[in-house]
């Protein structure tokens, strides 16, 4: 375990890079945004997650790359919700929509490293009542644990002292081959349904998977275009369950298990890190990497038929995800 200076945030606060290692995995985190900045597998010469070595990239075009996004990940239509019977409005940041809780969401805040060991780091974020329009004094924690030989375990928890909304998600982008592009990689998802969208928001229909949206048997990502949709894994939080596999042409495989009832899949149609280079030494471009984001379903406050994202005092939001790698 090592801590090094990665840069300086706009508020003058130093940003630390936390390096962990255990078994065949090496992992680097940033305390800004609890960002998963780099991940390496023994015997593989390239990084398995997309990112950059320049903090300025994470302040700009890569602002969500690798971060814990929240307190409500994904989209809230109309930037409004009813919380504990009270209408609440937020400042939209995507047209009329609130995406990932706005410009000052958890991705843009300093998480305090409270426990750091060779293969484990616990980061904590305190959010005051009313920040970004969300009620409740909230404590969020992100625990990263490396389990040999090659598994990353991520446990996200949150508590509040007033009724609020909570839907945390890790927003890492994965790329399992040495050459750019995900087209030759194969994705398998254990989902029977998905959510169609209009202008990025669910229409309310829960549609059975078919054709290009059926990944149950696995299919090459080159056969798909512009996916940014939630796949419905369950109707509520559940026990840890294997839900997806991503396999590169190189033979590197990522197996994802989670307790979350949804998996947002984004194939990176709008990725553009210009003018900043990614880990590979050139700017990241469209379809260079894929985001697999375990979470609750999007726009749930405005869709009573979806699993709720409410969190009350005395309750604990908890999501566990395991990323297991092999080659």
UniProtKB/TrEMBL annotation:
Listed Gene3D superfamilies: 2.70.98.10
Keywords (A to Z) from UniProt: Carbohydrate metabolism, Isomerase
One term of GO molecular function: carbohydrate binding
Source superkingdom: Bacteria
Enzyme Commission number(s) of this protein: 5.1.3.3
An annotated GO BP: galactose catabolic process via UDP-galactose, Leloir pathway
Family of this protein: Belongs to the aldose epimerase family.
Name by which UniProt lists this protein: Aldose 1-epimerase
UniProt source species: Cereibacter sphaeroides (strain ATCC 17023 / DSM 158 / JCM 6121 / CCUG 31486 / LMG 2827 / NBRC 12203 / NCIMB 8253 / ATH 2.4.1.)
């Amino acid at each position: 375990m090592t801590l090094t200076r990665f840069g300086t945030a706009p508020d003058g606060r130093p940003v630390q890079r936390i390096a962990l290692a255990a078994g065949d995995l090496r992992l680097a985190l940033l305390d800004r945004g609890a960002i998963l900045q780099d991940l390496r597998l023994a015997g593989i010469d390239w990084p398995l997650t997309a990112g950059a070595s320049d903090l300025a990239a994470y302040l700009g075009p890569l602002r969500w790359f690798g971060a814990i996004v929240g307190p409500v990940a994904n989209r809230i239509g109309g930037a409004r919700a009813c919380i504990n019977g009270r209408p609440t409005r937020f400042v939209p940041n995507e047209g009329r929509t609130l995406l990932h809780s706005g410009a000052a969401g958890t991705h843009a805040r300093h998480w305090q490293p409270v426990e750091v060991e060779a293969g484990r780091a616990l980061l904590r974020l305190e959010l005051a009542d009313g920040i970004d329009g969300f009620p409740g004094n909230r404590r969020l924690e992100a625990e990263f644990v490396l389990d040999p030989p090659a598994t990353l375990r991520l446990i996200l928890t949150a508590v509040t002292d007033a009724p609020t909304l909570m839907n945390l998600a890790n927003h890492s982008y994965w790329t399992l081959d040495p050459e750019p592009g995900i087209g030759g990689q194969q994705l398998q998802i254990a989902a029977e349904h998905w959510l169609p969208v209009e202008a990025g928001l669910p229409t309310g229909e829960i549609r059975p998977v078919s054709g290009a949206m059926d990944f149950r048997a696995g299919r090459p990502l080159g056969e798909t275009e512009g996916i940014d949709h939630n796949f419905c894994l369950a109707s509520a939080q559940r026990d840890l369950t294997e839900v997806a596999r991503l396999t590169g042409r190189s033979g590197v495989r990522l197996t994802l298990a989670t307790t979350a009832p949804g998996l947002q899949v984004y194939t990176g149609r709008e990725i553009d890190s210009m003018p900043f280079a990614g880990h590979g030494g050139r700017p990241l471009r469209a379809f260079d990497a894929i985001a697999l984001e375990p979470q609750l379903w999007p726009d749930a406050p405005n869709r009573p038929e979806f699993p709720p994202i409410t969190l009350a005092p005395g309750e604990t939001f908890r999501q566990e995800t395991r990323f297991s790698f092999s080659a």
